[in-house]
Amino acid sequence: MTATGNATYTYANGEYTMTFERRFAHPIARVWSALTEPDQLAKWFFPLEGTLGEGESIVIPWDETGLQSRVVAFEPPRLLAWTWHEPGDPESIVRWELFDEGGSTRFVLTHNLPVLGANEPSDTLAGWHEHIDTLVDLLAGRERAWSSATWRSLKDAYAFTTEKERLPGDEGIIEVIGGRKQVHFARTFDAPLERVWRAISTSEGLSGWFTETEIEARAGGSITMTFPGYGTYTYPVLKVEPPRVLEFQFDDDTGNIVRFELFAHGEQTLFVLTNRIGEKDLSADHRVGWHYHLDRLPSYLAGKPDPRGEGHHASVEKLYGFVRATEN
Questions:
Q1: How buried is 316 (Cβ within 10 angstroms: 0-12 exposed, 13-18 middle, 19+ buried)?
Q2: Interatomic CA distance for residues 290 and 184, integer angstroms
Q3: 110-149 pLDDT, tens per residue?
Q4: Shared domain check, 172 and 137
């Protein structure tokens, strides 16, 4: 179990169990009303739409369509649990529990979250952390708006702990997320965020450590990559959120998607790379390739040539026990 700030979390079998615990100097009835009354919820979370009762449907209006949920437990004034999932995603459970401690109240939030991508744990941990801090201020008479800047800072901090706990070394893993294989790396570089962003989102930067590349870094743009001995390939750029996120298609199979995401930690930057694999299983091949290219990135960031040369690719293949198929 890992603790960051006032959250604890465990990871097993593709699922995070996140727990937040707070104590409020308020009676249980006051805290329960903040958790269940729409006008109170709107001040720190979202005003749940619908009837609170076991088996009832509710909507969490966090976007235009809202999150369609179902109440799975409702025991005033102690327990509220409901489903949390986007359309097509596995269902997770959010559980709010209150414990009467003689005039004060202990609040425990538990969220069992299937991991659908590298960003979800830090997204969700940071989101709940800031929402609960907003609740603390509301109950203390210091009503304020939810802060996206604070969420961003918390997300960076949580990403460093969640990613490096799962991937403490330089090696990548192949995991199954939502029934599909995904190659996943997390590397920390001694360079500021903006410097790493230029290296992963510009033609000059990508050509310096990855392969000869031309990129139009905008959603709807294109990325053209030339791999010596294999050919030149052009695919669409799917998402760009400077200076944090770049996504692009990485094969003729539209299901093969690469996502680069950056997280700041002082003068260091965490680079999380995920490569969702399409219908054809290229996960072992792509893990070797990404490892080789990521090993070249520190030298590029330092303005130095990579000392290992092309022979390093064979070393990476040996590391993973990879044997390239021969063509007849």
A1: buried
A2: 9
A3: 998 877 654 468 888 999 999 999 999 999 999 999 999 9
A4: no
Structure tokens at 121: 């744990």
- What residues contact residue 44 under an 8 Å CB cut-off, 6+ apart? 34, 131, 134, 135, 137, 138, 146
Beta bridge partners of 107: 22, 98
Share of the chain above pLDDT 90, in %: 71
Kindly state the tokens that stand for 253: 């199979």
- At 117 the pLDDT is 54
Residues 6+ away with beta carbon under 8 Å from 232: 224, 225, 226
What radius of gyration do the chain's Cα atoms show? 23
- Cβ atoms of 218 and 209 within 8 Å: the answer is no
Q: Note if the pTM is more than 0.70.
A: yes
Tell the burial category of 45 from Cβ atoms under 10 Å away from its Cβ (0-12, 13-18, 19+).
buried
In a domain, 59, yes or no: yes
Distance between CA atoms of residues 32 and 99, nearest Å: 10
Q: Do residues 51 and 179 both lie within one domain?
A: no
Q: Indicate if the pLDDT at residue 327 is higher than 60.
A: no
Confidence of residue 245 (pLDDT cuts 50, 70, 90): very high
Residue type, 4: T
CA atoms within 13 A on the CB side of 120: 22
Contact call for residues 36 and 46 (beta carbons, < 8 A): no
Q: Based on the domain organization, do 135 and 207 belong to the same domain? A: no
Max CA pair span of the chain: 77
Q: Which two tokens stand for residue 274?
A: 């995920």
CATH number at residue 199: 3.30.530.20
Domain boundaries, position 42: 2-165
Count up the domains in the chain and report the number.
2
Is 187 in the same domain as 211? yes
Specify if 189 maps to a domain.
yes
Question: What's the pLDDT tens digit per position in 3-39?
Answer: 444 688 887 777 788 999 999 999 999 999 999 999 9
Cβ atoms within 10 Å of 291's Cβ, excluding its own? 24
